[in-house]
Amino acid sequence: MARILAIVASTLLAAACSSPTTSVCAAHGSRLANLDDMQKLGWDVSEAITISQIEAEAMEERREYRKQPHARQDVPMVPFGFANQAWLGFKSRVELGDEIRKISAPQVCWQNLSGWEGFVLLRDGQVVGSHMTLIN
Q1: For residue 15, what is the enclosing H or E element?
Q2: Backbone angles phi, psi at 48, to 5 degrees
Q3: Do 105 and 116 touch, CB atoms closer than 8 A?
């Protein structure tokens, strides 16, 4: 199931980031080659972040969501809710020495409805995986 979700997410990203007016937005998932490329293309890239930090933040978002009057009560209380299986697949790929960075597309991508944000898994500075958390 996680493999199917990854394929679907990759397909959605390819479609969403294919705007001919913003080639920088085409840099997504597997197309983000390395940390230097992301930064040169204007992507916001955080410092390295741990899995426990990511999951703590994601759970806080779940708790805040549940407080809303019209919140869906069937959203699982796990990191990333319904997208938890994709998250588990992403974090299962982490190896000793890898880094996880939070990333967000350049503003021009968001303005052209081809922005996304999430996390990338870096191994020796090269992108070896990604987990999308928001897309427009």
Answers
A1: helix 2-16
A2: -60, 140
A3: yes
C-alpha separations of 76 from 25, 67, 85 in Å: 31, 14, 11
Q: SS3 of 96, please?
A: coil
Q: Tell me which H or E stretch contains 99.
A: strand 99-104
* Token pair 């230097």: residue: 36
The rounded distance, in Å, linking the Cα atoms of 29 and 47 is 18
* 105 CB-near residues (< 8 Å, 6+ apart): 25, 28, 43, 114, 115, 116, 117
Distance CA 27, CA 11 (A): 13
The tens-digit pLDDT sequence of the chain (136 residues) is: 444 444 434 444 444 444 333 456 655 444 668 888 888 888 999 999 999 999 999 999 999 999 999 999 898 999 999 999 999 999 999 999 999 999 999 999 999 998 999 999 999 999 999 999 999 8
Kindly state the helix (H) or strand (E) to which residue 2 belongs, with its residue range.
helix 2-16
Helix (H, G, I), strand (E, B) or coil at 59: helix
Instruction: Give kind and range of the element (H or E) at residue 45.
Output: strand 44-48
